[in-house]
Amino acid sequence: MKVKRVHIVQLGFMLLVAALLSCCTVFTPIAWADEETDESASDMRSVETRGNTVNVNQMPDSSFLYNTDIAELFDAESFHDTQMVQVRGEVVGDCIADETDGNLCWITLQSLDEDDSSVITVLMSREQAALIDGYGNYDVTGTELQVRGIYYLSCPEHQGLSDLHAQEVTVVANATERDHEGHPGVIWAAILAVGLGLLLLFVYRYMRERSK
Hints:
By secondary structure, the chain is an alpha+beta fold.
């Protein structure tokens, strides 16, 4: 009888352990799922509280309005006449005050293509022109601008001038100084020319002394 009681006690203990293991297996995933849900909710709340910061001057990754080459406008493409266009170019020349409105001025944008010297005249406000920190010349690479506005092939307000009336102006790159590095071939050619000149001068004097 004692042996049977021992077996019964052992059997009951094993059943109790199996029941506990089953409970742990069932409730552990539920707890993990609850923790993940709480973390997700916390992340969502943190995102909502942070909010979004919008940079109005940020260059768009994609847009319904694509950049138009300045060369196309320079070649008097009638397709763009009185249309909204967007161009990018280097500011060159100088800022010229508008004769009819003191709050407006004229600047010149040049194509960014090194093999293309096409330009477009842009009418913009003084406030927009204040974004320009340098005008392109021999020693300076001018400010690179992105300008969006209305293009006129023959502007009725400005005696038929082809121009762009700016609405939005964004600085893409600030002005920088040009680095004029001397080309080795040019330097050696200059040295050779000086040497040849000195040699000819010596020969000339030598021949002159002999002729006396």
